[in-house]
Design goal:
Length: 304
């Protein structure tokens, strides 16, 4: 199987987002431009790290965020594993298609929850160098219905077991959640170091954040004290007074998180059909460069 190497980007400096440590509210609207907020208290991560990309609101940009962060980090030389924790039919596993080895069991995340295999046995290569996937399909729903013993901790313990058995072959794991705060999403949050929240720029998106915030706090208290909200991505971002207001509110509510506007880009919608990361399909897209910049801030690159 030949795997495609994900490209480094050459983005003209004028197309990159400015990085600031505080919003300047005095800038008049006309000359205001999107900026990445990196608070002074933010500490970039060290590998190996597990990120959960979560928001119970549908269409918030979770799967796109997982694919583009994975592609950016793979291009920077990291070994990345993505986990599809969504039982929808057309989700991550239909975008970065798993390449099952001949004769091997096509294990999925469901098999891990039901203790049928290890996380590594459920991990399969994709067509992209540096990105492997733990796939899922409709049968992941069985976890919610049957609630196998220890489900909430199933992913955390699968990762811990991997670490005990000589360490994970992956520098980074990214978990793509379903638009729900069900058992599988809680298990994903219980296994992660950092939460990454993609958010549309809309009033209802903002309301959804309140219950997500409560869930993250409960998971922190009961299951996973290390979980922190590392970054908020404002997906399909357009310049508007409301976008600015929302970003201001987010920086007050989450003073330690990086806040990233990902500019709206029509090419983002096309890439899943091509079964390629947007980074490969349309490397010139502003969304790609915004994700690339954010990936470098959250986990600075290293030589491949
Ligand atoms: N920067 C962007 N510009 C334009 N469109 C975007 C951008 N990011 C995401 N989208 C589009 O928004 C839609 C929702 O994105 P995505 O599937 O990533 O969200 P999701 O949160 O994973 O959805 P679900 O809740 O169904 O899992 C898709 O059609 C996607 O192509
Ligand atoms: Mg999705």
């Amino acid at each position: 199987m030949s795997r495609t190497v994900l490209p480094a980007l050459t983005v003209p400096p004028g197309d990159r987002l400015e990085v600031v440590s505080a919003w300047n509210d005095d800038t008049p609207y006309q000359s205001w431009r999107p900026q990445i907020l990196v608070p002074a208290t933010f500490r970039p991560g060290t590998t190996s790290r597990v990120f959960v990309v979560v928001n119970q609101k549908g269409g918030a940009g979770k799967t796109t965020t997982v694919v583009e962060l994975a592609a950016a980090w793979a291009a920077a030389g990291y070994r990345v594993r993505v986990i599809d924790a969504d039982d929808q039919e057309a989700a991550l596993s239909q975008w970065l298609i798993p390449q099952y080895a001949e004769g091997a069991a096509p294990h999925s995340l469901r098999s891990v929850f039901f203790s049928e295999c290890s996380l590594l046995e459920a991990t399969h290569p994709t067509l992209f160098e540096g990105i492997d996937i733990v796939p899922s399909g409709l049968d992941l729903k069985r976890v919610e219905y049957e609630r196998p013993i220890g489900s909430e901790q199933a992913l955390a313990s699968a990762l811990a077991r991997e670490a005990e058995q000589g360490g994970s072959p992956y520098d980074i794991t990214l978990i793509d959640c379903a638009p729900s705060l069900g058992l599988v999403s809680v298990a994903a949050m219980s296994a992660a170091d950092d939460a990454v929240v993609p958010l549309g720029v809309g009033g209802l998106d903002m309301k959804a954040l309140a219950s997500l915030d409560r869930t993250i706090r409960v998971v922190q208290e009961r299951n996973n004290p290390k979980l922190t909200l590392a970054a908020v991505f404002l997906t399909a971002w357009d310049k508007s007074g409301f976008a600015r207001q929302l970003a201001g509110k987010l920086s007050e509510d989450y003073p330690d998180a990086v806040i990233v506007p990902v500019r709206r880009s029509i090419r983002a919608a096309e890439a899943p059909v091509a079964e390629q990361p947007v980074r490969l399909w349309a490397p010139e897209s502003t969304a790609v460069s915004d994700y690339d910049q954010a990936a470098g801030i959250i986990l600075p690159g290293r030589a491949a």
